[in-house]
Amino acid sequence: MTVGMIERSAPAPDPPLGPAAANPIRRILVARGLRDFGDGLVAVLLPAYLVALGFGAAEVGAVATIALAGSALMTIGVGVLGTRADTRLLLLLAAVLMVASGLGFAAAASFAVIAAIALVGTINPSAGSVSIFVPLEQALLTQAAPDAGRTAIFARYSLVGALAAAVGALAAAGPEAIAATGVPWLAALQSSFLLYALLGVACFAAYARIPRRAAAERPAGRAPLGPSRSIVVRLAALFSVDAFAGGLAVQSLLALWLFERFGLSLAEAGLFFFWSGVLSAFSFPVAAWLAGRIGLVNTMVFTHIPSSLFLIGAALAPTVELALGLLLLRAALSQMDVPTRTSYVMAVVTPAERTAAASFTAVPRSLAAAASPALAGAMFAAGYQSAPLIACGMLKIAYDIALLVAFRHIKPPEEQ
Known about the structure:
75% of the residues lie in helices and 0% in strands. It has 17 helices and no strands. The longest helix has 29 residues, at 266-294.
């Protein structure tokens, strides 16, 4: 099914948010920066916090898996409700859940409680936006942006998130500085989760300033997916392979690998993830520029394959300098598919299906990503620390080739 066929059979699009409706782009970007700062912080601290509580690599992997699985389940609900409920209200509820997650982690001590909070909360072990916030924000951004500017808007959205996550990773050195003043180590780590809760309050304030859509403007009685169903199903299947691979090397596990393989300190790891995040962030505008010249699908594929080769090389590197260098090269390329992938999904479905498409392509990603951290943690515990990184790179290359074959002829409107 071509894009043109989809658009001709589609119902009338939702009206764009004009000046009178106070375009939500800036407020969404502010909220994205706040919550990704929190994600970048806790992704690095999570393994250190669990170790301080007396847990090991297997438990770190299990918590990452549970957190991603919980995110997937809640994203299913967002996909169903997104076509009927007020998107602003759903974002406000998600911000409340972020506050509760931070407070819960700061107070928890047993593995059962931590697992329960990870399942129903917003703690993100990957330092990337794999959460219930994403499909809601993507739908609002697409509604507010023209086709010609959509990829650039998503590049800005990703840029803000990546820079904020990088600064959050750098802030992971904070607990060591706090502990140096005589505060107990565990209490210093818990303070970071209290900061995460405060960031949730700030997100709530940002979302609260997004105008309500009039009831008449909301779709009523409409199935979440219609004419674009086949495209969404195929994209979701491919994205799940990519996400499963990515789950083998989520940031928390990569931090654990650096701790155990090369003996990096928390401050050193935070500094590395800061520069890694900065490189990823500035790759997003490059991705938007490149997509305008070679297309969205080509940009996704031909930047992703080299990044996977760099990851495999890092896993086999004999020295910390070489490993970190290869990982930084990977960071400069590995996320260029993020704004282009988002823009592509939003472009090849009808306007009424955007929230559902964002959710239903994110859910398989979350479920697939949830399955692999526990597997990677078990490999770590068995002494095969580099195996998950190699498997991640190989699976991602296979995904890129399959994506190119399946979707190179399905063009978004601006490429037709």
